[in-house]
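WARN retry 2 of 3 for item q-0093 after timeout on previous attempt; input resubmitted unchanged.
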Amino acid sequence: MKKSMKKLLSLAMAIALAASLTACGSGKTSETTAAGEKAASGESSGAAASGEGSFKIGGIGPITGSTAIYGQAVMRGAELAIEEINADGGINGAQIVYNFQDDENDTEKAVNAYNTLKDWGMQMLVGTVTSAPCIAVGAESSNDNIFQLTPSGSAVDCAKFENQFRVCFSDPNQGAASAQYIGENKLATKVAIIYDSSDVYSSGIHDKFLSEAANQGIEIVSDEAFTADNNTNFSVQLQKAQDSGAELVFLPIYYSQAALILAQAKQMGYEPQFFGCDGLDGLLTVENFDTSLAENVMLLTPFAADAKDELTQKFVTTFKEKYGETPNQFAADGYDAVYAIKAAAEKAAITADMDASAICDALKTSMTEISVNGLTGENMKWSKDGEPDKAPKAVKIVNGVYTAM
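OK item q-0093 returned
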């Protein structure tokens, strides 16, 4: 009697979930069933929809709004990994059900998305995609003891709690790695910086770059900031960089502002080298942007779609066939995040009938015991503080495509 009632309740919950997701619209959520099918509207049926005997992995990120390029990429990269894993037998014999919620890069909406996923029965979270929502959700997931692996949340506090890990480098690590890359490869000795002092991502990279530059024989000849309230005219910052004799301009900012800087530098006749971090990934997709202006722009990123290794080529080919576009670093981060969870889950021998807290306790330990060969790094390992250990890489834009350096 109890088993029968339990099944009826499970079915009722699945129907209610499908109805609520359908009401949100096809652009707001994505669910991959245990059979590997995506139901963008949230409509699904049977055991796969209710998650019986399956691991429930949630995702959160912006799939609408100004930063949708990041969230869509992570969602699709993770989705692709889940489909591969399910086709290969799942995790410890159990399939994966995937449910991705849109947060529009808004902290309040991210917390609401988290609560939606928790009510759904989420056991592990791949997210969130951007830093501020990740920090907000981290406070909730820590209280609930739900395992959280962010593919791309780079702010320091995105890995603040014991249940939080990340695939990408933290902002300080990106700053230090950028200075090291520029110095070790002798790209320039005189460097100017243009950064967003109102943004935690940009400021975090900027501060660590400054401290590491001296160790690399780099002279900071100009250091100019802008804010979110004044981020369209960069003539003053560029003029100071030019007057200082900077050979390279470091841009620890997002691609939308970088596109304006490149266009305005061209108008001034100023042609230094430009070097950025993962926030510049997306530069070639800016609407009405002359991509020739990005020629030879360099950025620190762990993934290049033109890399010749077998894993990258397979991923790029499959991604293009499925989604009709070339994957960026964020797609690779999402893909690697899911495979990291798989490796940690298998190391800990967790099962789908375990509750989220028990799974979290197991993964906290096993994440520090695994090594993953992924798209964004070879032999990736994680420390107890949630940080990845992998070699930094950089790419250069050549003829309108990212090229490994």
